[in-house]
């Protein structure tokens, strides 16, 4: 099935209008060249737990992207994603801005910015399992789900969203139940959103830490997410999801990995080919991010206002105004890079990854 899916992606990329979108030659090409030594942390402090969240038993996490300056200070902190109280965001940003690094060095030994850094800060109170109040909502939702009673399930989903004092387990199961609801109602956009959220808890158990979700559910979540990522041509994320599945020891995960190694090989062949890779972008939050799998890209079909585009590689960043059909090209030596786009909420566009050697 997945082999056919990837084949269909290649056909879509080749024949659904991409050629016409690329007929206009880019007005400019941006090239970045250098080599360097990574920034290393010197001082990191943990964020303060917000007292209001602690009193109510709320848990959560915040994912941040940031730049390490030439002086080793943390700058330009952006929130990529979060769960739980919004108070966690303020405390996470406040803590990270106090961190200090030994700065990155270029080939001449000069200090330079380190521009692609990310971290997830967890806010946990040491609880395990779902909370008593949430369990009542969860049990009611599970019964409705088993009976495929969409009306009653929707009522439970509303109760879940209105219940603010969730711990980590509550958050995981809340997204899983919402994914199952949108699976029943065939809303693929919401399915993907909640799969992304719940996949953050889909990890194999270790000697140091038990898993939040049962392994069978974690593997199913990651399997479904992998398919979505293929459909959306998010190949860097798809390969990361596949790699995570290799770390599970249960039979379902091992069978999946064994059966679909050829998919990863096909992705690698696709990335090396001249076939354009199309990624649909939409600003549902303040910033849209995408991990590049190639070294060159263009933005086209813009609807709405895009304020700026930032290219963050491990050791360099550039910020641009967004001009349609402009092309950005990055040398292979820079390694993994991300694109961050800011602008009007619900603005949409297409990002097209190209092969461009420099």
Automatic annotation (TrEMBL):
Residues 1-19 form the signal peptide. It comes from the Bacteria. It is a single-pass membrane protein. It is found in: Cell inner membrane. Its main location: membrane. Belongs to the TonB family. This is Protein TonB. Keywords: Cell inner membrane, Cell membrane, Membrane, Protein transport, Signal, Signal-anchor, Transmembrane, Transmembrane helix, Transport. Interacts with outer membrane receptor proteins that carry out high-affinity binding and energy dependent uptake into the periplasmic space of specific substrates. It could act to transduce energy from the cytoplasmic membrane to specific energy-requiring processes in the outer membrane, resulting in the release into the periplasm of ligands bound by these outer membrane proteins. It comes from Psychrosphaera aquimarina. Residues 34-132 form the TonB C-terminal domain. Transmembrane segments: none annotated.
């Amino acid at each position: 099935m997945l082999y056919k899916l990837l084949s269909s992606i290649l056909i879509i990329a080749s024949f659904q209008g991409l050629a016409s979108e690329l007929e206009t030659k880019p007005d400019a090409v941006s090239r970045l060249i250098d080599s360097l030594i990574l920034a290393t942390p010197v001082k990191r402090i943990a964020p303060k737990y917000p007292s209001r969240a602690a009193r109510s038993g709320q848990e959560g996490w915040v994912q941040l992207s940031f730049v390490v300056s030439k002086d080793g200070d943390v700058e330009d902190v952006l929130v990529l994603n979060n769960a739980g109280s919004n108070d966690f965001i303020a405390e996470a940003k406040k803590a990270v801005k106090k961190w200090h690094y030994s700065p990155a060095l270029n080939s001449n030994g000069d200090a330079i910015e380190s521009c692609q850094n990310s971290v997830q800060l967890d806010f946990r109170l040491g609880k395990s399992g779902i909370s008593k109040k949430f369990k009542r909502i969860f049990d009611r939702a599970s019964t409705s789900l088993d009976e495929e009673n969409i009306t009653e399930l929707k009522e439970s989903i509303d109760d879940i969203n209105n219940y603010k004092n969730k711990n980590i387990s509550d958050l995981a199961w809340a997204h899983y139940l919402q994914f199952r609801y949108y699976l029943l109602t065939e809303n693929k956009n919401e399915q993907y959103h909640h799969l992304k959220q719940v996949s953050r808890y889909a990890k194999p158990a270790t000697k140091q830490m038990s898993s939040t979700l049962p392994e069978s559910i974690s593997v199913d979540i990651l399997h479904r997410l992998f398919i979505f990522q293929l459909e959306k041509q998010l190949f860097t994320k798809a390969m990361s999801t596949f790699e995570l599945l290799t770390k599970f020891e249960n039979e379902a995960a091992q069978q999946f990995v064994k059966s679909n190694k050829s998919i990863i090989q096909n992705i690698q062949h696709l990335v090396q080919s001249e076939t354009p890779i199309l990624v649909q972008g939409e600003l549902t939050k303040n910033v849209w991010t995408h991990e590049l799998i190639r070294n060159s890209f263009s933005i086209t079909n813009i609807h709405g206002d895009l304020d700026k585009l930032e290219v963050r590689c491990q050791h360099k960043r550039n910020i641009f105004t967004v001009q349609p059909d402009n092309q950005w090209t990055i040398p292979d030596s820079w390694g993994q890079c991300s694109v961050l786009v800011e602008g009007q909420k619900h603005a949409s566009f297409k990002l097209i990854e190209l092969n461009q050697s420099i």
